[in-house]
Structure formats: structure tokens, C-alpha cells
């Protein structure tokens, strides 16, 4: 039933692998510290509407372009939620209260005044398919599979990114998913 997930993960780097080798050739990727030009963008949030689930938890975000330092402002319905100065093109906040039926705005400004503004909504909860809830998987694998299922429905890519980012440093498949989502790339390939 979940074979598409394994095929999808394999497809992320299959083009670089020789079936006769046990190790794949190195893959050229944009690392988390590289810039993509003289602009600012948050590919993860560019396809609105973007949603995540309510609750008090850290917020993960990645952007591209501009020059450090960056000023990141988060607000909910016009009221400041967080204001951070960061040197990297990503952040992980402390736990923030995300309230259901609320709109949030993220504004990132670099040292040269380049600015990007994106919004996202917060909902009460999500319903996952029963088979996904009952699948016999280790907890991090289950979380990654749930995130992949969410990401396959583009409006839930932000929630998928939050779930994958929370475990990406301990679970390689979650890292692959996180890295793909933060670039705004689709999770499933067209045949």
C-alpha cells in the first residue's frame, strides 16, 4: 500500500545511481547555506494557501537569497508573535502558540533591504487515512510517512515541512523530504 513512498524517496536521487554499485555517486545539491540570487523567496509558502496545525511548538522555516543578517518578523492577525535576527537562511524558533482559525504573516528582510512577505493559516486538526494511522512503523518513519502524505496534497506542505524538520537531524528520509519541500519541489513525480 505504501510502496509509492519508497519509490518516491528512491526517485529523489535515483538518477545519480548505477544499479551495479552499492553506493550512489555524489549528488549536487544546494546546501542550506547557499544563496540562489539577489532576491528573497520562501518557496515553501509561495503556493498559497499554506496551512499548518494549531498548537504550541517550534516553527521551522527556510528561505533563499539576500545577504545576512536577516530580520524575521512573525505576526498573527497583525500582532507581533516573534522578531528574530539570524545569520542563516533558516530558522527554528522556540515553541510558539499557533491558534486555530488564525492567519500568520512572515516578513524577512535582509541587510540590503530586500524583503519577502508570505502568509499561512492555522487549522484545528488533520484527519489521516486509517491505514496510515495503523501501519506498523517505527515512530520517526510513521512521522515521515505522514509528512509525505501531507506534502502530496500541496496546501499541507507547510505542515509536512514542520513534521519533517522536527526529526530531520535524526531520520534521513525526513531530511530528504525537508530539503525537497523547502525548495518548493513537489513530493510526487508525474509519470
Task: Walk me through this protein's architecture.
This protein has 191 residues and is of the alpha+beta class. 28% of the residues lie in helices and 25% in strands. The strands form three sheets. A five-stranded mixed sheet has the order 1-9-8-4-5, with helices on one face. α4 runs antiparallel to α5 and α4 packs parallel to α6. The radius of gyration is 17 Å and the shape is globular. A hairpin with a 5-residue loop joins β8 and β9. It is built from six helices and nine strands. The longest helix is centred in the last third of the chain and has 13 residues.
- What is the overall pLDDT average? 83
**What structural category characterises the helix and strand content?**
alpha+beta
Q: Helix segment count?
A: 6
Largest sheet: 5 strands, mixed
> What is the general shape?
globular
Please write the string of helix (H) and strand (E) elements: HHEEEEEEEEEHHHH
In terms of topology, how is this protein built?
Elements: H1 3-11, H2 43-46, E1 51-53, E2 55-57, E3 60-62, E4 70-76, E5 79-86, E6 90-92, E7 96-98, E8 102-109, E9 115-123, H3 130-134, H4 139-151, H5 157-167, H6 172-182
Parallel strand pairs: 1-9
Antiparallel strand pairs: 2-7, 3-6, 4-5, 4-8, 8-9
Helix pairs in contact: 4-5, 4-6, 5-6
Amino acid at each position: 500500500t505504501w510502496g509509492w513512498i519508497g519509490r518516491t524517496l528512491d526517485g529523489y536521487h535515483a538518477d545519480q545511481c548505477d544499479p551495479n554499485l552499492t553506493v550512489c555517486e555524489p549528488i549536487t545539491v544546494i546546501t542550506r547555506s547557499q544563496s540562489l540570487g539577489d532576491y528573497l523567496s520562501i518557496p515553501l509558502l509561495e503556493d498559497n494557501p499554506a496551512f499548518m496545525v494549531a498548537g504550541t511548538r517550534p516553527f521551522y522555516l527556510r528561505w533563499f537569497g539576500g545577504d545576512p543578517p536577516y530580520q524575521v518578523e512573525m505576526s498573527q492577525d497583525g500582532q507581533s508573535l516573534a522578531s528574530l535576527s539570524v545569520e542563516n537562511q533558516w530558522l527554528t524558533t522556540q515553541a510558539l502558540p499557533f491558534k486555530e482559525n488564525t492567519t500568520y504573516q512572515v516578513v524577512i528582510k535582509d541587510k540590503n533591504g530586500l524583503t519577502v512577505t508570505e502568509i499561512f493559516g492555522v487549522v484545528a486538526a488533520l484527519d489521516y487515512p486509517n491505514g496510515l494511522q495503523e501501519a506498523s512503523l517505527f515512530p520517526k518513519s510513521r512521522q515521515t510517512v505522514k509528512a509525505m502524505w501531507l506534502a502530496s496534497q500541496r496546501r499541507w506542505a507547510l505542515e509536512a515541512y514542520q513534521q519533517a524538520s522536527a526529526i530531520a537531524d535524526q531520520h534521513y528520509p525526513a531530511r530528504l523530504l525537508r530539503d525537497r519541500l523547502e525548495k518548493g519541489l513537489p513530493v510526487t513525480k508525474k509519470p
